[in-house]
Structures are given as structure tokens and as C-alpha cells.
Amino acid sequence: MVAENYPSPTYFILLFITITRLISTVGKTSQWTKALSLTPELASVSLDDTIFCKLRDDPEALQGRASRDYGNLVREVPLAVFHPASASDIARLIKLSYNGSVPFKIAARGQGHSTRGQAMAREGVVVDMAGFRERGNGVGIRVVSSVDPNNKNGYYYYADVGGEQLWIDVLHATLEHGLAPMSWTDYLYLTLGGTLSNAGISGQTFRYGPQITTVREMDVITGKGEFVTCSQQTNSELFHAVLGGLGQFGIITRARIALAPAPKRVKWVRLLYNDFSAFTKDQEQLISVTGRKQNVSLDYLEGLLLMHQGPINNWRSSFFPLADHARIISLVTKHSVLYCLEVAKYYDGQNENNVDKELQVLLQGLSYIPGFYYEKDVSYFEFLNRVRSGELKLQSQGLWDVPHPWLNLFIPKSQIMEFDSGVFKNIILKRNITTGPVLVYPMNRNKWDNRMSASIPDEDIFYTVGFLHSSGFDNWKAYDAQNKEILQFCNVAGIKVKQYLPHYRTQEDWANHFGPKWRTFVERKHQFDPRMILSPGQRIFNN
């Protein structure tokens, strides 16, 4: 059973809407013609008509996507869902809460790709950013080229993108101009505001940094209802707070994303290892060859586990040829766990004659198992959108909207071997339930901006590990128990793990997560959202 949390009946008071006001308000839906059961928070504010007519509290609105997320593990039923017609509507809603004697909570929900209710607002209002996008009411996507003040003969390129927009649409729009962002997530059907509130990571991060480092400017509505334009140079405190800030400081309504000329095609390679030490050594060697001006470097690097209880190909991509499945399965059976190194190098007409040679230079001397080298040549778009076909297949089988008890971690390089022996080769094998993808790949700390809110391990190289479980509604707690055992092992072993897409239950845990950034995080909260209105589903300041 999915845990369901409804507003407490003792928390409600009756707010009567007068006939006079109903008649004078244009566009109100029928449910608002009756007395509404609302909390003291909503009763304490005077709803102006432009806001009132965009609130819904009917069962379809409350029980629909506003009370669910991709995780399908919890449900938090809000009091109302807000359907803004403009960014100004969002600012008015927040200002109403901020000025009320008792503020009500507000959460902006895009695609709801969180797994623990982070985009929900129990006893509050959920802002429907997906509907905002679908109605075409936001900023949209605008691709711009401008003279580069640092280069007399050059231009720089960017896209002004609404926070409600999907990255897949950003890709489509920028490719029309021969351009693209440099940093991506593996799955592109996520909103800009959602990924920038966390970090936005994938195999490009080691070279180009997380998505938050590609932002040049933003429009943000703070927890005071103030509309602020911010950048590295202007209102920089808010700029750095919001990026990786888990929605605590403002709602992103526009972000300016740096662009670069888009490649045409991708050499996509997978190599198999049976030795974790060799696997990580090779990964770390490959990410050390970086630099945007270095042609002989990879553009993407990830890694994943192959285990006997899981399929050789999974929903993230079908890569290995069917003819090789039997011998790969035989190897997995022999070693229990295999490690798959996945790399990619982009190219276009200018360097297509050299790309094979450059790739072989990069991969020479690696310690993968001889004979287990696999390569594909695909379009740039096909590579970036590689997860979509797996999603559509699962949707057709009714296996997409199921529980996803995910666990995403950052592990210091110095402790990744201990994590392998204690988790991959112990907890995972003993429990024998992991069938979804398990990712493991390194990143360079110097590609992150420490002024931003995102919290990462304090080592030059650290690993991301993602347990991307899917389960039935009757057995997700077994995966949840495994996640807890992994975290407990890290705690006892002294592994300084940090959660990505974090989920903590106490403020002490949050303080430990942010470490030396915690004091700044709290100060920024008091500065930009002093009444603790925004993103209550993160449970940072309202435990």
C-alpha cells in the first residue's frame, strides 16, 4: 500500500464564500460556489479574484498528479491546486501567503519526477507548472546569439527558457539553430526548474559540470512574492542559493542556459570489467582528460552494474547485441557482478575522419575484459534521448507508473572500494532483489561551483551511485529496507555519503548533509523565504 497523508480534520475551519463575492468573481468553477473546507492558513488571507478563480479543490485536481509523484511511495493531498496564467499569478499567490497572518505552504510541481513527495504540499497549494507549460503561458524557449564582449570577432549563444519547460523541448528548439546545451540528464522529460533545483547530472558532468553551472541568469519569484532577476553579477546571493537549492528560496520562471555548437553524431561504446578496482581506475583516468578546448577527450562517461538477477539490457537502453547475450550472461554467472564502462565521443563533419583514431587513443591500455568491447554510431539526438524508447515500452506494458524506491548517492573516491565490498558485493548480492539499473561513475569536483547550494563530497573526485529500482505496489518496502541497510552500512563504516535527490527525516540529518554550507543555507532561507512557505515536501524546515 502507498502511504497516504490527508489534511487533518481537526486542522480545518469552515471558510464561507458569500454569494455577493461569487457573483462578482468571473470564471470561478462550480466547486467554488459552495463553502470550502480550508485551513486557517488559507482562511487568514484575502484571496483576490485573479487568484481565486485559478484555484481548484475538486477531487480530480486533489487526487490527481498534485498528490503523486514518480516514486509512487507516498501521497500528500493538498488543499488546492493553482493553475497560473502568468508568472505574475504565481508571485501574487506567494505574496498572499507571505502577507497572511498564518502563511500557507506552496510547492511548484513540474513533472513530479521526485520519489519521496518532494514536490507535494500537504495542507497547502500545489502550483501546476506542467499545466502552465501545456497552456503556453510561460516564457517558452528563445534561442539567442549575441556579440561576445570578450571576443571581438565572436558570438556567444544562449537560450532563455521558462522554468516549466522540458529539456527535450530545449533540445529540439536549440538543434534547429545548430546549437545545444552542454550538460544533460539521462532522462530529458524533466522540467528545467526541477533539475536546476537539484543539480542536473549525467555522464557529461565530469567534463561540462552539472546543469546548474551552465546557467547565466534567472528570473526567480522568492518566498516573499518578489520577482527578481539574478546572475553571478546581480543579486548573486539569490542566484547561488536557488541553484541546487531544492526549491527552498524561490520558483524559477526563466533561466538563461549557455549553448554551444551541437555535434551531429556520437560514437557510443560499452566495455565490460570483472574487477572493480580496474573499472574505477580506468574511469578516473578517463575523466582526468578534460577541457573544452581539448579535442582528444571524452564527452560522456558513466558506468553500471550487470547482475544475474537483472536483464542484460534494461529500460535505460538496449545496447548489447542479442547474439552476445548468452556469453555475457555466462560471465555474469561466473563473477556474480560485472561492471560496464559506458563512454561517448561526439563528432561532426569537421572531425569525422579522426574520431575513430581519437577514441582508440583514449581507450588504449584500458583493463576491460578482452573481446567485450561494443560500439554504436548514432545521431546526437538519439544518444541524448536514449531513455525514451525504454520508457514508452514500459508504459505500454503498464510498468512505468509503479513504485520507484530509488536511492541516489555521492561517494568520496577514497571510500568507493569499501562501498563496493560492503554494498555491491555484500548487501546487494545477499538480498538478491535488485533488477533495475545500478549506476556508478565519477565526477570532478572542480566542475562544480561551491557557492551554489548543491552539496557534494569534499574530494577532488567523487562517485555518483544510483539504485534505480522499480517494484510492485506490494513489495516496494523490501527495496526501501535495502536502501536503509545501505545507508546504515555507510554510517557504521564512516563512509561520508551524501544523498542526491535527498530525503532526510530530521533537521540534524539535513545539517549533516549540507555540512559547512548548512549555516549559509539557513541564512539564505531566512533572507528569501522567511516564513517557510516554499517546497514543504523537502521537509527541511517543517519536520
UniProtKB/TrEMBL annotation:
Alphabetized GO MF terms:
cytokinin dehydrogenase activity; FAD binding; oxidoreductase activity
For the keyword Metal-binding, the answer is: no
SUPFAM superfamilies, from UniProt?
FAD-binding/transporter-associated domain-like (SSF56176), FAD-linked oxidases, C-terminal domain (SSF55103)
> Which key words are in the record?
FAD, Flavoprotein, Oxidoreductase
Q: Which reaction does it catalyse?
A: N(6)-dimethylallyladenine + A + H2O = 3-methyl-2-butenal + adenine + AH2
What Enzyme Commission number(s) apply to this enzyme? Answer: 1.5.99.12
**So which cofactors does this thing need?**
FAD
In terms of superkingdom, the source organism counts as Eukaryota
Family listed: Belongs to the oxygen-dependent FAD-linked oxidoreductase family.
UniProt name for this protein? cytokinin dehydrogenase
Tell me the organism: Glycine max
> Gene for this protein?
LOC100804431
